[in-house]
TrEMBL record, chain A:
<keyword id="KW-0862">Zinc</keyword>
<dbReference type="GO" id="GO:0046872">
    <property type="term" value="F:metal ion binding"/>
</dbReference>
<dbReference type="InterPro" id="IPR039058">
    <property type="entry name" value="Yippee_fam"/>
</dbReference>
<dbReference type="InterPro" id="IPR004910">
    <property type="entry name" value="Yippee/Mis18/Cereblon"/>
</dbReference>
<feature type="domain" description="Yippee">
    <location>
        <begin position="13"/>
        <end position="126"/>
    </location>
</feature>
<comment type="similarity">
    <text>Belongs to the yippee family.</text>
</comment>
<keyword id="KW-0479">Metal-binding</keyword>
<dbReference type="InterPro" id="IPR034751">
    <property type="entry name" value="Yippee"/>
</dbReference>
<protein>
    <recommendedName>
        <fullName>Protein yippee-like</fullName>
    </recommendedName>
</protein>
From TrEMBL, chain B:
<feature type="repeat" description="WD">
    <location>
        <begin position="129"/>
        <end position="170"/>
    </location>
</feature>
<dbReference type="Pfam" id="PF00400">
    <property type="entry name" value="WD40"/>
</dbReference>
<feature type="repeat" description="WD">
    <location>
        <begin position="341"/>
        <end position="383"/>
    </location>
</feature>
<keyword id="KW-0853">WD repeat</keyword>
<keyword id="KW-0677">Repeat</keyword>
<feature type="repeat" description="WD">
    <location>
        <begin position="183"/>
        <end position="205"/>
    </location>
</feature>
<dbReference type="InterPro" id="IPR015943">
    <property type="entry name" value="WD40/YVTN_repeat-like_dom_sf"/>
</dbReference>
<protein>
    <recommendedName>
        <fullName>WD repeat-containing protein 26-like</fullName>
    </recommendedName>
</protein>
<feature type="repeat" description="WD">
    <location>
        <begin position="317"/>
        <end position="340"/>
    </location>
</feature>
Length: 127, 397
């Protein structure tokens, strides 16, 4: 495989892909620990690793590091119908969770743009 | 004035001794004693002073009164230069430029055909350099092409003899890992980026001469040494490249809006080609204040470090790899995409244009092959038995 372009998070507490140890998200970005994924417990994050130093106006979800974004899919989750994108580790292509693109019920709209990472797929560092 | 009048109206019409007349008029023009004394050199001095006078006059008079020397020649040359610059496919020295029609090359001088895949062809494997324990991230040729530096990621830098394949020296540092390598242009110094963000310099015997600490480089960064060996170039922040003059201790930066993944220095060290996360390649002029010049788009980059390079006749082209398995070639000054070369069956991670042969390009891909590209000689009458380059040879690097 070619040389992956990957970035590292500054910590202190970081979630990494369990399979290849590439940084995925920071503990500081956790919004809720009470979610359910495909493989059990999952956390809701407001952000996963992006090109961090840029101001929000220049950050653009079209260009990612460490994580690859899958296509839009409509899915019936426990909380109703949503349009989601599965997210994969760019290094080993393991599914790490998904991103909420759109929610169809008013009460679920707060999740739009947020990320779910499956606890089972993560390694914790810095604890 | 009286003397001049006399000369003009009375002496010259007599038509006698014209050489004396010339002598007298030159005295009027430049009445210096030395011109009168040396008689055998007088001719040369006279001629020189006359043409010098003419030059002085030309500078003073506006062009509308007196056309500058060789003006037509200058205009014609200028037209030819402009035509050459506008020619997007101009890639050889040999093309004579005709005055009868505007110059326009065809695409036939741009490498576009696979000549060889891996070792079946004119280019053959010379050595396999073993020794690194970690993946090799960077390679740097010595200025005399006799030695090669290679960097194992977060490990060490090795210096190899190109003709024997022998490892001459290992550069490493206790407690840290080396992440990039580069030669000084005089071939006497070796530089390496370290994973603690510093940059170190060694002599050829392996003695560490200097270490610049601070945020000089990143874990993933290229390293180039430019100018007279004083300018160290590396990615120092996600969106910035540091050009550090180690002698003047001066820093200048290239600041981008998106994350920088790799860069490449032109042979004349005047330009830097910067690859960005957002799939754009930016050209910067790094003489004096760094100036953004042009951008190149079209290729694909989502996961990997994709490398691009300068190349062709007078480095008039930009080539790049791409994650869609193709090689992309742009015309440097116009920014036009002029060729997209399919052939590889995996992401093309890097390209290298032969500095000695503008018609040859090499590319390396995730399909584990290296392809050599050359000219497409479809106009050849002979039914060619050219090796088509589809014979794959699975091999490691």
């Amino acid at each position: 495989m070619g040389r992956l372009f990957i970035e590292s998070l500054n910590g202190p507490k970081i979630f990494k892909c369990k399979c290849c140890k590439v940084d995925s998200a920071s503990h500081d970005d956790i919004i809720s620990k009470d979610f359910q994924g495909r493989y059990g417990r999952a956390y809701l994050f407001k952000n996963v690793i992006l090109f961090l130093p840029l101001p929000p106006s220049l950050q653009c979800v079209d260009f990612w590091v460490n994580i690859s974004l899958g296509p839009n899919e409509d899915r019936h989750l426990m909380s109703g119908l949503h349009t989601v994108n599965d997210i994969y580790c760019s290094s080993c292509q393991q599914i790490l969770g998904w991103r909420y693109e759109k929610a169809y019920e008013e009460s679920e709209k707060y999740k739009e743009g947020l990320f779910i990472l499956e606890k089972e797929r993560m390694l914790k560092e810095g604890w | 004035m009286e003397a001049l009048k006399t000369l003009r109206t009375e002496i010259v019409p007599l038509c006698i001794n014209s050489s004396k007349v010339c002598e007298l008029s030159s005295c009027i023009v430049s009445p210096s004693p030395s011109a009168l004394v040396g008689c055998h050199s007088q001719g040369a001095v006279r001629a020189k002073s006359r043409s010098k006078l003419l030059e002085e006059l030309q500078k003073l008079l506006p062009p509308t009164v007196m056309i500058p020397e060789r003006r037509l020649e200058h205009l014609v040359e200028q037209a030819l230069d402009l035509q050459r610059d506008a020619c997007m496919f101009h890639n050889s020295l040999e093309g004579e430029m005709s005055l009868y029609t505007d110059h326009q090359c065809g695409k036939d001088k741009i490498p576009s055909r696979t000549l060889q895949v891996n070792v079946n062809g004119g280019v053959s494997l010379k050595h396999k350099l073993s020794g690194h324990q970690k993946p090799v991230s960077h390679v740097s040729w010595s200025p005399d092409d006799c030695q090669l530096l290679t960097c194992g990621v977060e490990e060490a830098v090795r210096c190899w003899d190109v003709s024997s394949g022998e490892c001459l020296r290992i550069y490493e540092k206790a407690g840290v890992g080396l992440v990039s390598c580069g030669w000084s242009p005089d071939g006497k110094l070796v530089f390496a980026g370290i994973n603690d963000r510093s940059i170190c310099m060694w002599d050829l015997d392996g003695k560490e001469l200097e270490c610049w600490k601070g945020q000089r480089t990143l874990q993933i960064s290229d390293l180039e040494i430019a100018s007279n060996g004083n300018q160290i170039i590396s990615i120092c922040k996600d969106t910035a490249i540091l050009l550090f003059d180690r002698e003047a201790k001066a820093e200048k930066f290239i600041e981008e809006d998106h994350t920088i993944t790799s860069f490449s220095l032109s042979r004349d060290c005047r330009f830097l080609l910067v690859n960005l996360l957002n799939q754009e390649i930016h050209l910067w002029n790094i003489e004096g204040e760094a100036k953004f010049i042009a951008k190149y788009k079209g290729h694909k980059r989502e996961r990997f470090i994709i490398r691009s390079c300068f190349g062709g006749f007078e480095e008039a082209f930009i080539a790049s790899g791409s994650e869609d398995s193709q090689v992309y070639i742009w015309h440097k000054s116009s920014g036009e995409l002029i060729e997209v070369l399919p052939g590889h069956s995996g992401s093309v991670n890097c390209v290298s244009w032969n500095p000695a042969n503008p018609h040859m390009l090499a590319s390396a891909s995730d399909d584990r092959t290296i392809r050599i590209w050359g000219l497409n000689k479809i106009n050849m009458k002979r039914k060619g038995t050219h090796p088509n380059g589809t014979h794959y040879c699975n091999g490691g690097t």
